[in-house]
């Protein structure tokens, strides 16, 4: 989803097929085990499963396009493999206008 996208339960907009929308959200929720970067947008879109509107379906399609372009991202679980975890955190939560390098902390476990 584009940062700053406002999704609401407004009366405006056309209703879409709720069964299809729930199916898409369910499939995205299944991906969360290997794609933690999708947790926030999928949880946000899950709020609108009762009466999904066209704007909500557009956001789901945007996430699907993002997944299509980032297939190589995610967590890969291997039966026999080393443990190499690298994570990043934005400690300012985007509230600062200073360069991002000053606010990103790197956490990692290697050779565990």
TrEMBL record:
<dbReference type="InterPro" id="IPR043502">
    <property type="entry name" value="DNA/RNA_pol_sf"/>
</dbReference>
<protein>
    <recommendedName>
        <fullName>Reverse transcriptase, RNA-dependent DNA polymerase</fullName>
    </recommendedName>
</protein>
